[in-house]
Amino acid sequence: MDEQLTRKTVVLRELRDWTLSIILAIIIALLFQNYVYAQSEVHNISMQNTLVAGQRLIEDKWSYRFKSPERGDIVVIHGPESPLRLVKRVVGLPGDIIDVRDGAVYLNGMQYVEPYVKGQTLSGTMSFPYTVAPKQLFVMGDNREHSEDSREIGPIAFSSIEGKVVIRIWPLTKFGLL
Questions:
Q1: Which residues make Cβ contacts (< 8 Å) with residue 37, sequence separation at least 6?
Q2: What does the pLDDT look like over 164-176, one tens digit per residue?
Q3: Which is deepest, 8, 132, 158, 176, by most CB within 10 Å?
């Protein structure tokens, strides 16, 4: 009888250990997904030719806790500025003067060279020149003629930046750092 009780105890203890390990692994994975790195999918054409619909990305949610976004970063936006999660490129930082004229962007008085841009940059509903306020960013999609960005929805608060896009993981033929 003691041998049967010992086996039952060993099996129950093993089952308990496995259950706790699986629960702990799930909790760690969820925390990692919510606060460190996450996977996102491109759903529209506003970032063509850099990103196209259906591509999957890895978003770094961690580094902006220690440093500010930089001009040229591709960021994921999730805040009150738009009901949708947006993927855009940072064009203007706090204090920058943005101007849009002759189909191009001028940054602090000089034409901003953007080899990744598709189409002409038009002013949208915003009045230019525009000075970016503290704790805000001016963002635009790379496909300038088909992008809802700061020209339409206004500047983006730092607090609305969910993270920085760092890697394209799908399709595999386009895998790499961004």
A1: 58, 59, 60, 61, 62
A2: 999 999 998 999 8
A3: 132
Phi/psi at 30 (5° precision): -65, -40
- Buried b / exposed e across 76-109, counting CB within 10 Å, b at 16+? bbeeebbeeebbbbbbbbeebebbbeeeebbbee
pTM over 0.90: no
CA angle, corner 87, sides to 82 and 88, nearest 5?
95
Q: What DSSP string runs through 17-58?
A: HHHHHHHHHHHHHHHHHHHTEEEEE--SSTTTTTS-TT-EEE
Residues tagged active-site: 46, 88
